[in-house]
Structure of 8-oxo-dGTP diphosphatase:
Amino acid sequence: MAGAGPSSPGRPLLLVAAVALIDVDGRVLLARRPEGKPMAGLWEFPGGKVETGERPEDALIRELAEELGIQVHDSCLAPLTFASHGYEAFHLLMPLYVCRRWNGEVRALEGQELAWVRPLRLGDYPMPPADIPLIPMLRDLL
Ligand SMILES: Nc1nc2c([nH]c(=O)n2[C@@H]2O[C@H](COP(=O)(O)OP(=O)(O)OP(=O)(O)O)[C@@H](O)[C@H]2O)c(=O)[nH]1
């Protein structure tokens, strides 16, 4: 997949699960990475690292409850595509799910800035390099 970068044997593989939450108007939720973290200020899909022994779906369910205060059922997470991108310190493998149904109201529980973005405006939001190839696929779906 584009963005995979040159192979680097010493670099660990990092598995991160991410989701495009889609509201009734077809807008996508993006969250802004807070100051102090790597790639601060960039907009990304909600999600996070998959822990050892954890299923990606369970990692997402956990992260969505922690970060956004919503409850998501396994059956509402549909796989869409994935990112495979070589960062300097690790190689990121990131399945991207789509979710249109959840319980509760989306809130920024970790002080992060949130934006509901129309597919055609996704390009206005600077994203991590791994995410760039995912945008056309999301637009095609929506
Ligand atoms: N959640 C998420 N992470 C992404 C996206 N794109 C992308 O490159 N990443 C990278 O995947 C990793 C996600 O890990 P994370 O969110 O759990 O970790 P973090 O850097 O916030 O660190 P921490 O949770 O250890 O404080 C980060 O390196 C992040 O930059 C994305 O769209 N969503």
Observations:
- The first strand starts at residue 13 and ends at 21.
- The chain is about 15% helix and 30% strand.
- The chain has a mean pLDDT of 94.
